[in-house]
Amino acid sequence: MMLEEARLTVGKVAKRSGVKVSTLHFYEDKGLIRSWRNNGNQRRYKPEVLRRISVIKAAQKMGVSLSEIKSAFASLPNNRTPTTEDWDLLASKWRKALNERIAYMEKLRDYLTGCIGCGCLSMNSCPLYNKDDELAAEGTGAVILEKTAAQNSV
Amino acid sequence: MMLEEARLTVGKVAKRSGVKVSTLHFYEDKGLIRSWRNNGNQRRYKPEVLRRISVIKAAQKMGVSLSEIKSAFASLPNNRTPTTEDWDLLASKWRKALNERIAYMEKLRDYLTGCIGCGCLSMNSCPLYNKDDELAAEGTGAVILEKTAAQNSV
DNA sequence: TTAAAACCTCAAGCTAGGTTGAGGTAAAGG
DNA sequence: CCTTTACCTCAACCTAGCTTGAGGTTTTAA
User: Fold this and answer.
1) Which residues form the domain of A39?
2) Which residues have C-beta within 8 Å of that of residue B148, sequence separation ≥ 6?
3) Which A-chain residues 57-86 have CB contacts (< 8 A) with chain B?
4) At which of A82, A103, A134 does a domain end?
5) CATH number for position B17
């Protein structure tokens, strides 16, 4: 038996979660969230979708892509919305990646500090510019972080 | 008088710098590098373009966007290729941003650690999901880093 | 001298993560 | 009941940072 409050409209989900309706459609297309339809073909959501969205947003802040989030969800039993225990698992995995990402940036920063004033900025000798990317190579295999730093917007 | 080695073809620049020819065209379109043409309308570069590319790549690794790199170059006298002193200035500016970015991620990681097992992942109470984004709000105004973490690729 | 390799321009395509708008239907409030 | 607000689909558009391809020219090396 589904209570009134247990069936959220897309507008309410948007309002409560702070994401746009179009984003919810988008996430649904991408298989990140689910809904069913009422008689009038309008989307209805279980409240747990809010939790799912919160996980998506948290993961995004950590630099996890939507497709990775999707497969993380898919790896859970029944593709369910993460329980607390599920969240523990996902979070510690992502936290690991986050640590690696931080470590990468710290290395970069340190090289950078070393380079200030050294005038070494030549292709051959400067560790900041290196085809083989020492920094990445030293990494611990953080696949999801490989293309990280080059992707900011203005 | 320009020596032979002082006039690099696009192919040679590509080879030495490790970026594709198409990328060099792209950077030129964007105003990040410059070239002149020979009689046959082919691009020729001064060797300093390599240094410029190395600065571009280093900046990208720090999360600086091409348009920001462009304006950084534009801020230099004569829009010149960064000298060692110029590099000092740019690098310390970007290093500052990098530090802020690292600090942001560390905060995120720490919240995440706190959240593991706490089951707090609700829209209202979890600091990981917060419309007003406490983490960002606590920041030091790192404009270029605002949209950072949400932009990974697969 | 001639063939291959390198170069040219311009347009279109790609990934990620969405947003916008047109044209039409459903639900809610007074 | 009737108007307004919310919702629907589908396609097109957007930024960033490039890559690919078509069709044509120039340079280089045997």
Assistant:
1) 1-82
2) A63, A152, B63, B101, B104
3) 57-58, 60-65, 67-68, 82, 84
4) A82
5) 1.10.1660.10
Report CA-CA distances (Å) from B73 to B56, B62, B131: 10, 16, 35
- What does the pLDDT average to over A83-91? 76
Q: B1-52 pLDDT, tens per residue?
A: 444 446 899 999 999 999 999 999 999 999 999 999 999 999 999 988 988 8
Report yes or no: A109 and B99 within 8 Å, Cβ to Cβ: yes
Q: Which residues contact B89 (CB under 8 A, 6 or more apart)?
A: none
Q: Which of A17-26, A128-137, B74-83 has the highest mean pLDDT?
A: A17-26
Of B55, B62, B102, the CB nearest to A121: B55
Q: Is the pLDDT of residue A16 over 70?
A: yes
Residues A34 and A5 in one domain: yes
Contact status, residue B53 vs residue B88, Cβ threshold 8 Å: no
- B89 domain residue, yes or no: no
> pTM score, two decimals?
0.72
Domain boundary among B35, B60, B82: B82
Determine the longest span between alpha carbons in chain B, in angstroms: 71
- Nearest by CB to residue B151, choosing from A67, A102, A152, is A152
Whether residue B59 contacts residue B69, with contact meaning beta carbons closer than 8 Å, is answered with yes
**Among the residues of A30-145, which ranges form H helices?**
48-61, 66-74, 84-115, 134-138
